[in-house]
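Saturday, quiet lab. Running sequence design on the structure tokens for the scaffold JK sent over.
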């Protein structure tokens, strides 16, 4: 199939979670098996140890947003899995960073955003290539979540994870880049923060959702709103830096760019391609400024400079693991926040088409 499955969820937080668990049960079980293998083969970590570690994050999730925790409880019921299994899935980034190899491979994602006046039709466009291990491809789904009075959400996620990459019907969009430093802390997990951003109606609210509590590990959050602005938030567990692109366009990869956070950036030492991917994306955006539209963004995401570790990733040449554990682009997403829709490719955008996804009410 060339399209990701779409599931529409509504009701109370517990009901929404139960529906997610029931409708995406097959993909949730796939993801749990995939991460059990990834933790074991990639970090020498047994699932029991991962779930015990994840327990520490439950109070942080509840403190951040009890409704999100209720959804997670509902997912465990609907999917017929132990609550700690689903919590562990939502804490997978923190487990891999804080308990895994600090010099191990990270996500290779490349994100971009462009806003008026550099866009051709004065539109707000944001998107990314999501690069992760091939094993996770079968567990991806598109969710449309109706959660009155909060914004409705349209996102692509790993089934069982409550927040990911997407947009809401108030005009907010978010992309994610993994960052890696040695922290070993406990706080609000990345994917819970992403859901908080998608629950926001404005950019200011979204920034506050990132910064209001300590976080479980580092990440980069690229935000945009259909009002015509974009900002980038680089965050460690206890500090953050907000980057505002005066030129109206921005790109980010997997290393820290801002100068206001002192960090021991592991990606800068082990992920040389992050610099090339970000620089290449910025160069291509600059060349098209004033005329940028969705097709320009797609061309960036199909770019093969420094193949196979390009913006469009086809696998790590130095990998000696099984094929399923090789990192590559698993989807590419281009969100037009002005129009309230996104285009999504299932797999590398150089060889799979983009399909359009909209809110069912639009």
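Result came back. Writing it out in full:
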């Amino acid at each position: 199939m060339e399209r990701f499955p779409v599931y529409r969820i509504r009701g109370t937080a517990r009901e929404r979670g139960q529906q997610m668990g029931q409708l995406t049960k097959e993909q949730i079980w796939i993801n749990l098996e995939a991460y059990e293998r990834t933790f074991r083969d990639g970090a020498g970590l047994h699932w029991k140890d991962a779930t015990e570690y994840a327990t520490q994050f439950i109070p942080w999730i509840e403190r951040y947003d009890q409704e999100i925790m209720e959804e997670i409880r509902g997912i465990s019921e609907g999917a017929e899995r132990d609550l700690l299994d689903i919590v562990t899935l939502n804490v997978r980034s923190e487990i891999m960073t804080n308990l895994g190899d600090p010099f191990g491979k990270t996500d290779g994602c490349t994100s971009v955003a462009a806003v008026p006046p550099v866009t051709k039709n004065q539109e707000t466009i944001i998107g990314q290539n999501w690069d992760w291990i091939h094993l996770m491809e079968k567990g991806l789904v598109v969710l449309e979540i109706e959660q009155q009075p909060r914004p409705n959400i349209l996102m692509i996620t790993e089934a069982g994870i409550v927040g990911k990459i997407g947009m809401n019907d108030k005009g907010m969009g978010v992309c994610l880049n993994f960052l890696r430093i040695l922290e070993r802390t406990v706080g609000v997990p990345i994917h819970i923060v992403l859901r908080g951003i998608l629950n926001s109606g404005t950019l200011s609210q979204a920034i506050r959702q990132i910064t209001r509590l300590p976080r479980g590990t580092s990440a980069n959050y690229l935000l945009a709103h259909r009002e015509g602005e974009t900002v980038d938030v680089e965050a460690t567990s206890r500090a953050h830096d907000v980057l505002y692109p005066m030129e109206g366009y921005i790109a980010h990869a997997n290393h820290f760019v801002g100068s206001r956070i002192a960090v021991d950036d592991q990606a800068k030492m082990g992920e040389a391609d992050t610099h090339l991917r970000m620089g290449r994306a910025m160069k291509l955006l600059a060349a098209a400024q004033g005329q940028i539209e969705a097709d320009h963004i797609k061309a960036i995401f199909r770019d093969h400079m420094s193949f196979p570790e390009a913006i469009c990733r086809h696998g790590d040449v130095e990998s000696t693991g099984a094929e399923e554990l090789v990192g590559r682009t698993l989807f590419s997403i281009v969100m037009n926040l002005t129009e309230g829709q996104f285009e999504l490719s299932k797999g590398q955008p150089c060889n799979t088409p983009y399909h359009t996804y909209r809110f069912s009410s639009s």
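Notes for JK: The longest helix spans residues 25-43. The two ends are 25 Å apart (CA to CA). Ask whether to fix the surface positions before the next round.
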